[in-house]
């Protein structure tokens, strides 16, 4: 087995007397797409927040390529290769679509963030930004202010920014939530493409079982903040604990 690119060890967070994530240990590997499932309130998004740095752990640790990043904030984790789409806001609403992606390309290239002097002198940055917009089917909205985009287009733009940052670990939190039927295939196809490349470690929180079945190499199940199942999708989804905890089968008396 290859070395895990991402690991959590006994990762825990408490809010007062409530344990939202309870000693979760898991390894995540390049070339594997892991879907994290569980009922509402199971701790899925909170676990994501602990990995990406939005929340500080009460105890336990997060490791990236063997380096303990537990004490690092979200910005530093992003610069090290942990990328997450669909946070509450990742976008600059008063800039255009192309400018948002170009800033991500510029950041990935390690160039200073002077927005306008770099804009005209580095045409390759614009070209790469246009490439990512084409991948998410937003090329025709390149000059639109982000504030004017629909919800679905904003989420597609977040995917373009995530791709432009070229992170080692890619995290998608309910990627199809709030999207129209027409918009969903674009994002799912992009995730399929990332998975097919087999070079990234991909984590996905998702409720829709058709999406889970079509994408998952591995499923992790959280219930009341605790990891209760981890393994092959067919076996995990068929296990009694998942049927009870996630799919709503009646519990035994």
TrEMBL record:
Pfam families: ABC_tran, BCA_ABC_TP_C. Residues 6-249 form the ABC transporter domain. It comes from the Bacteria. The keyword Metal-binding does not apply. InterPro entries: AAA+_ATPase, ABC_AA/LPS_Transport, ABC_transporter-like_ATP-bd, ABC_transporter-like_CS, BCA_ABC_TP_C, P-loop_NTPase. One of its GO terms (cellular component) is plasma membrane. One of its GO terms (molecular function) is ATP hydrolysis activity. The keyword Membrane applies. Keywords: ATP-binding, Cell membrane, Membrane, Nucleotide-binding, Transport. This is ABC transporter ATP-binding protein. The lineage of its organism: Bacteria, Pseudomonadati, Pseudomonadota, Betaproteobacteria, Burkholderiales.
């Amino acid at each position: 087995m290859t070395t895990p690119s991402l690991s959590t060890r006994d990762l825990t967070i408490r809010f007062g007397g409530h344990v939202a994530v309870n000693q979760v240990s898991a390894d995540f590997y390049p070339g594997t797409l892991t879907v994290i499932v569980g009922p509402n309130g199971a701790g899925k998004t909170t676990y994501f927040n602990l990995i990406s740095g939005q929340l500080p752990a009460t105890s336990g640790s997060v490791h990236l390529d063997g380096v303990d990043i537990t004490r690092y904030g979200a910005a530093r984790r992003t610069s090290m290769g942990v990328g997450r789409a669909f946070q509450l806001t990742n976008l600059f609403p008063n800039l255009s679509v192309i400018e948002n992606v170009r800033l991500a390309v510029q950041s990935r290239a390690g160039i200073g963030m002077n927005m306008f002097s770099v804009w005209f002198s580095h045409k390759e940055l614009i070209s790469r930004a246009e490439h990512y917009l084409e991948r998410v089917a937003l090329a025709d909205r390149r000059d639109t202010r982000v504030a004017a985009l629909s919800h679905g287009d904003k989420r597609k733009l977040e995917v373009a920014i995530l791709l432009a940052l070229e992170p080692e670990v890619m995290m998608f939190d309910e990627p199809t939530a709030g999207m129209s039927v027409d918009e969903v295939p674009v994002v799912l196809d992009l995730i399929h493409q990332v998975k097919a490349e087999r070079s990234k470690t991909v984590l996905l929180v998702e409720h829709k079982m058709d999406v889970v079945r079509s994408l998952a190499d591995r499923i992790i199940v959280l219930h009341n903040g605790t990891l209760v199942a981890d393994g092959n999708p067919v076996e995990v989804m068929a296990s009694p604990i998942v049927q009870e905890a996630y799919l709503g089968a009646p519990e035994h008396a």
